[in-house]
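Entry type: protein chain
Record version: 2
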Amino acid sequence: MPALNSNRPANIGGRYKSIFRFSAVVVLTSFIAHFPSAQVAVAQPSEASETVKSTVEKVRATVTEEQGKTSPEALDGKLREIIAPVFDFEEMARRSLGANWRKASADEQEQFVDLFSDLLARNYLKKIRENVAESDFRLDGETSKGEKSLVKTIVQFEGEPASIDYRMMKKQGRWKVYDVVIENIGLVSNYRSEFAGIVSKEGISGLLQRLREKQ
């Protein structure tokens, strides 16, 4: 019976462990979107890039200022307020369920969005608190096509650079993250593989129960 791994995406080898320790900046926290060959390189930071940059800076500043002065729970609450407008958790949840999304009832879909969003936020916000102050961040370019954009960043963590790229789409005039790709590994695509194995054996209800047990 497949086990639900709430701490990191499935199939990630040991050499990626330190990278995924910092992947919280993402959910700061995976949906594979294929951009056409007619991508346009963006020379100057765009609205999408500035959204990522400002979010990272706000998170770093909040952790630096509040850590040790407030409880982890209270700090997580402040961090959630920062990332909530930037990360499209509903879209991330839908893509992580893949084809099984259409098989779920409206009630199951709503439950899954709530449980999956909580799973991401809980696991990765903890890692933000532990690691964000130890890392350096910089933008590394962007490719954009219409209402979608791929914002590339480099994170220097424990002396080693790692690529953390943000797939974003514009919704209602705002750029939001719907996937994070760490060293060419999509966060949500890994969850999708893991969830598919559980659903095939236990159904949507079984997956929901697994997620509840992780709360």
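Comment: The radius of gyration is 17 Å.
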